[in-house]
Write a structure and sequence with these properties.
heterotrimer, A: alpha+beta, Ubiquitin-like (UB roll), FAD/NAD(P)-binding domain, 6 domains, 7-stranded mixed beta sheet, 51 strands, 22% helix, B: alpha+beta, Gyrase A, domain 2, Alpha-Beta Plaits, 6-stranded antiparallel beta sheet, 5-stranded antiparallel beta sheet, 4 helices
């Protein structure tokens, strides 16, 4: 038995196919194809949750994605749990566990509902007013209280075990919505030969045909016709039909984001199946056939469980075979709701009365109601409803305060008319226009290549919708170059032409400030709140929205917008278009984070760039650090060593014997062409025409503003070929910077740039024994000090493979950097290590590299500089050519502020206590006793323990640093103040540089 | 001593295999490659020296005897030689103005093949890969997720994906997930 | 996500392949070493950030690698045209007020 309220012979579900699920611990039986909402209603469950602010009992308002109330916690297992799932969208699968939210200790008895009694305290704008002051109370009292008392679901705590996927796609015509309009448009476009995407958020196509069973198309039942068209479209090679797929975002230049729900409706999803698939579709043309959403009536207690939209009542009955009550009232301002009464009556459900706020409903529906014996009360209003956990009566009268009649009902279907779903149109930045006659916003000026058809375009008549959609489909297909196809004939008949509709507060919304007549159920915003906002001076709808929270979050104008706007307009005495309209933002319905990030998880979150030598370092137990996307060996701890001990040992070993270092990540750019030297002259501060082939030089690159941008060693391989190196992190931006100047400022230069960072594995061998280590491996290059002095480069072979061998040093020791094609890197490294290890050398990592270079006072761009440091500030003025007529930065360096005295300059710092190692980033002051705020002179940029010097060393950017040699400054820390001495000579080790030239 | 040694070449994708029945992934065999840059006036001589007519139409390629010249930009080509020829030296024989930088080891390549090859690549690449827009022989530098790649369609159901070596495993992983998704 | 026409690739591509390069048609003074502080300020620092039409540089950084220029409306993000680096700045009269042909082709 799938619920006592299931009406035999009604609906489209198959009674034989059942699924079991639980709600708040109680087990229920559903039919395959049920939503959680239809299954619970079938079982007589109307109370599904508690509201956000007042903890009011709430039920099911709608049968679709606009649902503001019936938000549940849905899970398969402890990790696969999702809060705030709309019960009206979620399909039941066997074994599903659902639970209500925002209630304690139970849904029927919820302590938090005292908020409902305290509601004067929670008036609109209460966040802004009540909790402004004092600040401490906000953190300690108000916020924790609100977080506990107000809210919806609880976020899952475990890692999401599902996976998600992404697909980029292109099409000629994308049709959003597969109701009558969307199907017709898609068919016309597809038959013209265009590549068509048709997407719909529901499991089956049909849109309004799900409930509107009176409609016949081409002589068939409308819903059956829809399924037949979908089958026809699916069979066409040029068409992709996606159901359970929400077009949630319309972005620039016809890019739409779709979320396809792949497994959420399945009891046993396949292992390979993603839970959801994000589609990023670029369409040449877009057809919006998104339909319309029914509005509720605004009257007192209109949020009671059992009060729901008339179309929802029809959907539950006609599609799911579920009666929403046994004695149902209808309260409407629109003809469409009459059909709900007719359907219910035909299904054997008692209809209490149709209450119509209009004096003159449509003649046809009125006649039909009378002929079916249904009481119609025109010019009346439902002033309030009785019942708390479920509606049990409606109080009907002509006016508030007048004579009333109480009618018992167990469900009340409401309709204030229909709001065209212009969300995607609005997201596309189209301008809406106000149609005064029908009191609705409709697509006005398009910003992108799109067309709206059917209900979302304000076209009410069925046949007119079909004609409009067919024409749009053909037109859009033609616009993309498709051929015209045979004429398509579709004729539809609807039993009634609907009239009517109202927006704003109904009679029962009171002028009374205590009446709770809801316009935004999800945020507990009532008509009175909008009135209050206006009384408090809010004039613009944007302000009213933020003050009241009306239409925020997932509602985005679906249900609350028009009512809020109409009430505000009335209060302000303005026309609706003058009050304005808030922007409908993406996403149309909530999208999981999993879908948004899709493949970008775990190892695919970000590329982890590894060098050819990485596996060797990993096998040796190296610790790694991230430098940009690169994983670099940080240090190589031996058994029992911590980082400090390992680095101290590595530093000593390099200077005493030798070390081997993986420098492969250094950026490399091959600069080739007859104007190569001329180009480098323009891009670096140094002179390059004077550099002979076979030599290399340290170069500094400044930006046009004169600040250091990058540095590196540049080797001249031939007259017209340079091997440029950059910092590891700087490689892409340096190449971009060079290309920018080459292409746009110096386009006549005959020179080309190629990134070769990854072409070469680079093995640095540094230390007194460096030459002895590599000598037997090298072929074709005399590497003696005489033939191959410091700052030389040559091509030859090593281990039988080609090499560019640099004699250079970032340690201050005799050093070589062996460049070999990367696929040989590992083999050459191993050959070098086989020589180095027996001599007592060590592999070393980036930390040791940093210490050794600091011992020599070599800077690291980005650590010792920060984008405001000139070469002169870093004591690198020698690298700036005084002779060149031009280079990038030449003018910037002459700016008044860059030549002024007192600039922050890079100096060395030696702590008075040599065992104290400063903290990088620590501030430096002159007077430690100065009252706060103290005058900051600068900060420590680099600081290390130097095992070679047996003391700490540091570098710092200090105001007027070069004039402070020998002065004592102070580094105030939380627990102490450290005295330091300024040394303008940053070379702490081997000041003469003799070790380089052996 | 050096004549006793010959360093061995190790590709970053050695031993990798993956994908699905509708889009198989295989690492391409080692090849030699240059990034070729030249002005229009040099193209005839370079075409002669390389034995392939260098394409000048955007997104097109030319190939002969296992050598492929891919248009990357208006003055940039990626030349791939499956037989490992010394392309820098061959280009030099043209005697005309150009730049040839050896990128044989900078790039590696993944062959993606199967009837859903487009879907597999479109899992992380935003280009339109339909045959009408990206026909056999078409090539383009683009992005695969966060990795820059060069796509080269060698058959209706086969793409060669050229990628920098340190991005290769990342690109392989993305293609593998999408290839499996395409099989559903 | 923008769709940008690259005048070198002769094709529209996704914004992902491009990088914006700021205002176009700001030439680096050929005598830059000799210009005044005010001239340098004007050249290097001062930008208009217009609401509406802008001429801006783009680089097809993950495509052909080339810099080019484009005329775009900063409000609607509509691209009026893109053209190769070095080509003269087009006259807005040639592409503005050509009518809105979006949607309303109905």
């Amino acid at each position: 038995m799938s619920g006592a309220n299931r009406i035999s012979g009604w609906g489209r579900l198959t009674p034989a196919k059942t699924a079991r699920f639980t709600f708040d611990g109680k087990s229920y039986t559903a039919l395959e194809g049920d939503t959680v909402a239809s299954a619970l209603l079938a079982n007589g469950v109307h109370l599904l949750g508690r509201s956000f602010k007042y903890h009011r009992p709430r039920g099911i308002l709608s049968a679709g994605p606009e649902e503001p109330n019936a938000l549940l916690d849905v899970s398969r297992d402890s990790a696969r749990r999702q809060p705030n799932v709309r019960a009206t969208v979620q399909e039941v699968f066997d074994g599903m566990v659902t639970a209500s939210q925002n209630r304690w200790p139970s849904l029927a008895f919820d302590i938090g509902s005292v908020n409902d009694l305290m509601s004067p305290f929670f008036a609109a704008g209460f966040y802004y007013k009540t909790f402004m002051w004092p600040k401490k109370a906000w953190e300690k009292v108000y916020e924790p209280f609100i977080r506990k008392a107000a809210g919806l679901g609880e976020a899952p705590k475990e890692e999401d075990p599902d996976h998600y996927s992404n697909r980029f796609a292109h099409c000629d015509v994308l049709v959003v919505g597969a109701g009558v309009a969307g199907l017709s448009a898609a068919l016309a476009a597809a038959k013209s030969g265009a590549k068509v995407f048709l997407v719909d958020e529901q499991p089956e196509v049909g849109g309004a045909l799900h409930y509107d069973t009176g409609v016949k198309i081409n002589g068939k039942d409308g819903f059956s016709w829809a399924q037949d068209v979908a089958s026809e479209l699916r069979a066409m090679a040029n068409v992709t039909v996606l159901t359970r797929t929400t077009a949630f975002g319309y972005y620039n230049h016809n890019m739409l984001a779709l979320c396809e729900r792949v497994t959420d409706h399945k009891a046993k999803p396949g292992k390979e199946e993603p839970r959801e698939r994000l589609w990023q579709v670029r369409a040449k043309r877009v057809i919006l056939a998104t339909g319309q959403i029914e509005r509720h009536m605004v009257f007192e207690n209109n949020d009671r469980p059992g009060v729901m939209l008339a179309s929802a009542g029809r959907t539950f009955l006609n599609h799911f075979g579920v009666a929403v009550g046994s004695k149902v009232g209808v309260y409407t301002a629109h003809d469409s709701a009459y059909e709900a009464a007719f359907d219910l009556k035909r299904a054997g459900v008692s209809v209490a009365a149709i209450v119509d706020s209009r004096e003159k409903p449509g003649d046809a529906v009125l006649a039909q109601a009378r002929s079916m014996g249904i009481e119609v009360m025109t010019g009346h209003a439902v002033l309030t409803v009785g019942g708390k956990l479920r509606v049990n009566s409606m109080t009907v009268g002509r006016h508030a305060g007048g004579a009333t009649r109480k009618i018992s009902v167990d469900a009340l279907l409401v309709s204030a008319g229909w709001t065209p779903s212009v969300h995607l149109f609005s997201q596309s930045r189209g301008k809406l226009r106000w149609d005064a006659e029908t009191q609705r916003f409709l697509p006005g000026t398009y910003a992108q290549d799109a067309l709206s058809v059917g209900a979302c375009n304000g076209t009410d008549d069925l046949q007119a919708t079909i004609e409009e959609a067919l024409a749009a489909g053909e037109l859009m297909a033609k616009a993309t170059g498709a051929e015209t196809a045979a004429k398509i004939e579709i004729s539809g008949q609807a039993p009634f032409a609907w009239t009517g509709g109202m927006i704003g507060a109904a009679e029962g919304a009171g002028p009374d400030t205590t009446v709770k007549a809801f316009i935004d159920f999800q945020h507990d915003v009532c008509a009175k709140d909008i009135r209050l906002a206006v009384r408090e001076g809010m004039q613009s709808i944007e302000h009213i929205k933020r003050f009241t929270t009306n239409g925020m979050a997932s509602d985005q104008g679906k249900l609350s917008n028009m009512h809020g706007l109409a009430i505000a307009a009335e209060m302000l005495g303005k026309d609706i278009p003058q009050v304005g309209l808030t922007t409908f933002r993406q996403p149309y319905t909530p999208v999981t984070f999993g879908t948004i990030i899709n493949h970008s998880r775990g190892e695919l979150f970000d590329p982890a760039r590894k060098t050819a030598i990485h596996p060797w370092a990993e096998a040796k137990g190296a610790e790694f650090e991230d430098v940009g996307n690169w994983k670099r060996a940080w240090y190589f701890p031996k058994a029992g060593e911590d980082m400090h001990a390992a680095v101290a040992r590595e530093c000593k070993t390099v200077r005493d014997v030798a070390g081997v270092f993986d420098a492969s990540t250094l950026g490399k750019i091959e600069v080739v062409g007859p104007d190569a030297a001329k180009f480098l002259n323009l891009l670096y501060t140094n002179a390059w025409d004077t550099l002979k082939p076979g030599k290399c030089r340290y170069g500094i690159m400044t930006r046009e503003d004169g600040f250091i941008y990058d540095d590196g060693v540049v080797g001249r391989m031939a007259e017209d070929r340079f091997h440029v190196t950059t910092t590891t992190g700087g490689a892409p931006r340096v190449l971009q910077h060079m290309e920018d100047y080459l292409q746009t400022e110096f386009p006549d230069l005959k020179v080309w740039l190629t990134s070769t960072t990854e072409q070469w594995a680079v093995i640095a061998v540094q230390g007194p024994k460096a030459r002895e280590i590599i000598a037997p491996l090298v072929e074709g290059i005399d590497i003696s000090n005489e033939a191959f002095p410091h700052m030389s480069v040559a091509e030859g072979k090593i281990c039988g493979v080609p090499t560019r061998l640099f004699r250079m040093s970032f340690t201050g020791e005799l050093g070589f950097e062996i460049n070999v094609p990367a696929d040989y890197g590992r083999a050459v490294w191993e050959a070098v290590w086989a020589r180095a290890e027996p001599m007592g050398a060590c592999p070393y990592g980036t930390e040791t590299m940093h210490v050794l270079r600091a011992e020599k006072g070599y800077i690291i761009v980005g650590q010792d500089t920060d984008g405001t440091v000139t070469p002169d500030d870093a004591s690198l003025g020698w690298a700036v050519s005084k002779k060149k007529p031009d280079f990038v930065g030449i003018r910037g360096l002459k700016r008044p502020d860059l030549v002024a005295s007192g600039r922050k300059q890079l100096v060395g710092l030696l702590t008075k206590d040599p065992t104290v190692v400063l903290e990088e980033g620590a501030q430096v002051v002159a007077d430690p006793n100065e009252p706060k705020p103290m005058t900051m002179l600068g900060h420590v940029t680099s600081s290390y323990w130097s095992s070679n010097l047996n003391r700490s060393i540091a570098m710092a950017l200090i105001a007027d640093g070069k004039n402070r040699n020998g002065k004592t400054l102070y580094v105030p820390m939380a627990d102490r103040t450290i005295a330091v001495e300024v040394v303008t000579d940053m070379v702490f080790f081997d000041k003469e540089g003799g070790r380089l030239n052996v | 001593m050096s004549d006793l040694m010959q360093a061995t070449r190790r590709s970053v994708l050695d031993g990798y295999h993956g994908g699905s029945a509708v889009a198989r992934l295989t690492p391409a065999a080692p090849a030699s490659r240059i990034s070729l840059r030249a002005p229009a006036a040099s193209l005839d001589a370079l075409s002669g020296a390389l034995g392939v007519t260098i394409p000048v139409k955007p997104k097109t390629s030319a190939a002969a005897n296992g050598r492929h010249v891919l248009w990357i930009g208006p003055d940039e080509w990626l030349v791939i030689d499956e037989n490992g020829a010394d392309l820098v030296a061959e280009a030099a024989k043209s005697g005309v103005l150009h730049s040839a930088a050896d990128v044989s080891h900078r790039n590696t390549a993944i062959i993606v093949s199967g009837r859903k090859v487009e879907e597999a690549i479109n899992g992380s690449c935003s280009q339109d890969l339909s045959l009408a827009v990206f026909p056999v022989g078409a090539c383009s530098r683009t992005l695969l997720g966060k990795a820059e790649v060069v796509l080269y369609r060698t058959a209706e159901d086969t793409f060669r994906v050229e990628v920098w070596r340190s991005f290769a495993t990342f690109a392989f992983g993305l293609l593998d997930e999408a290839a499996k998704d395409a099989a559903l | 996500m923008l769709l940008i026409y690259c005048p070198y690739c002769e094709e529209e591509r996704n914004e992902l392949e491009f990088r914006n390069g700021g205002d176009a048609h700001i030439a680096r003074p050929t005598n830059i070493a000799d210009i005044t502080d005010e001239e340098f300020e004007e050249y290097f620092f001062i930008r208009q950030n217009p609401k509406g039409l802008i001429f801006e540089r783009w680089r097809h950084v993950h495509g052909c690698g080339k810099f080019f220029n484009a005329a775009r409306d900063t409000v609607s993000d509509r691209f009026y045209m893109s053209y190769k680096a070095g080509e003269p700045k087009p006259d807005p009269a040639t592409f503005l007020n050509t009518g809105n042909d979006k949607g309303a082709s109905k």
